[in-house]
Design a protein that fits this description.
CATH class: Alpha Beta
Helix content: 40-55%
Structural class: alpha/beta
Number of domains: 1
Strand order of the largest sheet: 1-2-3-4-5-6-7-8
Shape: globular
CATH architecture: Alpha-Beta Barrel
Radius of gyration: 17 Å
Largest sheet: 8 strands, parallel
Number of strands: 8
Mean pLDDT: 94
CATH topology: TIM Barrel
Oligomer: single chain
């Protein structure tokens, strides 16, 4: 039986949720049990509804109670003095066993640039301590992702929420940079997992559900029913993410 390690889920409520969306912790735990999802990286919506410091504390407190949940912190530039300087951020990441960070730069969220002139301190810190940086394609574009990957080749980027309309760009990105990983939560194009594995290998694909905004059965079915070897399925389901989360202490 394949173990699944979810790289893309959250807890917390949003403004104007669509009918049926349940972002509470109990529902996440229940969904993980129902769908046999072994572990999950989780971030808190209060990071963007309120402030990253508030949401990060909440997700760290939650994950401290569950050994199968791992905290993802939302980080932001500290030019205004409202977040943490790099040294303090590194201390807190290690203290709270933060396994990955997430950037939320869109004007609907934290509204900051991903440019080097704005986020260089974040990129260098994550490169130095080996923490992967998660960015949703809903909040940026492929040109920006390419520039970040090319400028910081020793920092790993995980691109999430990739819709079918960006399929061609994902192939081009993976062909040109070596430090990019892709979440499969939204990858619904028929046979795209097989095509990606054939062209680039299975090592750059990460299982994710998109909970609570997506139905987890879609991503699970895509992996289990893909025309891939058992080793390739296990890489996507959990092994790639396990390797990615080994950071330098």
């Amino acid at each position: 039986m394949i173990k699944f390690f979810d790289c893309n889920c959250s807890v917390g409520e949003i403004e104007n949720p669509f009918p049926g969306r349940r972002g509470d912790l109990d529902t996440l735990i229940q969904n993980m049990e129902t769908y046999d999802i072994d572990r999950a990286l989780v971030w808190h919506m209060d990071c963007v509804i309120s402030h990253p410091k508030i949401g990060n504390k909440k997700i760290s407190d939650i994950c401290a109670m569950y050994n199968h949940l791992y905290p993802v912190w939302v980080v932001m530039p500290n030019h205004t003095g409202e977040f943490y300087d790099p040294q303090r951020l590194q201390e807190l990441i290690i203290l709270h066993n933060v396994r990955a960070v997430k950037l939320c730069p869109s004007d609907q969220r934290l509204n900051h640039s991903l440019g080097i002139w704005c986020c260089d301190m974040i990129y260098n810190l994550m490169k130095n301590i080996g923490i992967p940086v998660f960015i949703s394609l809903n909040e940026t574009d492929c040109d920006t992702v390419y520039n970040i990957c090319a400028t910081y080749p020793e920092m790993n980027i995980v691109l999430t929420d990739i819709h079918y309309s960006n399929s061609r760009n994902i192939f081009a990105l993976l062909a040109n940079v070596r430090n990019l990983y892709t979440d499969i939560s939204y990858l619904k194009t028929p046979f795209i997992l097989e095509d990606l594995c054939l062209k680039f290998g299975s090592e750059k694909l990460l299982f994710g559900t998109g909970l609570p905004d997506m139905e987890p059965g879609c991503a699970i079915s895509a992996v289990l029913n893909a025309r891939l070897s058992q080793n390739e399925k296990e890489n996507i389901a959990y092994a790639n993410l396990d390797r990615l989360l080994e950071y330098k202490k």
